[in-house]
């Protein structure tokens, strides 16, 4: 067991504010939007914000969401990141909102105040069910390796790294090295299919070298699997029809099973939405079913799954139990935008869980 002073779960990532809004089909005609997911300047974020109908604001960023939910579940959690400033040098409004929400959840905070504004991510849900995401990490990109206290990593049982940080290789590699040195497991949530494709070889190398628990949804898992096959010059045929899709999934699962067969790590967790989850570890596959729920919004469900899975892992539950706990808690956020969590609801949920 690790030293219990401080946080068992240490989360490092982008400190941003999520902004959710329901929009109509003609949104592209009156908002300066582009592809389904893109990064823009903070000035462009500001232009979009003033036009949104009834926006809902919440602290965001994958690692911060995990810290917030895990803390509400009773797991001592900490978050390290950079928030932004006003021109006067004081914390801006988004920084204050971010700080308050995580403090209210009981998260131990190490927030560095940057020079740029606090980052923001706008999630627009169209009436046809599709989603447009526009983000500006802004001040969160100012985080450096020197901002991370090594003692916090030494005390933690699990270090959580946001997949959106993978492009900052010096920072990520330093985090991984410190975790490895102190026997701290590392959880990495890939974050998007594009990240999985772009950083596939880097992710593979980290899985081979460090004590990694890798979280992906199905789209991200397929992107990683395909990119790794292509890197090996293997023929990849896109599945068409139910039979081909089923065969593709079986081949992908076998690939991940073999990938984990040589050692305790990596552990690969594929979040499958209404189909539950599959966990690959030690050359075995652990499956966890879930109840299908019609969601209001799914953005926070993956983070909730990770928070509950890791909370169970810290309590030395089996991998199957960890996945079951992840599914159970993820269902609780499907009726709210993002991770605007009802504190009373989650406190009651934590008491009902079989830790």
UniProtKB/TrEMBL annotation:
The lineage of its organism: Bacteria, Pseudomonadati, Spirochaetota, Spirochaetia, Spirochaetales. GO terms for molecular function: kinase activity. It comes from Breznakiella homolactica. Keywords: Kinase, Transferase. Belongs to the carbohydrate kinase PfkB family. The keyword Ligase does not apply. This is Adenosine kinase. InterPro entries: Carb_kinase_PfkB-like, PfkB_dom, Ribokinase-like. Residues 47-342 form the Carbohydrate kinase PfkB domain. Gene3D superfamilies: 3.40.1190.20.
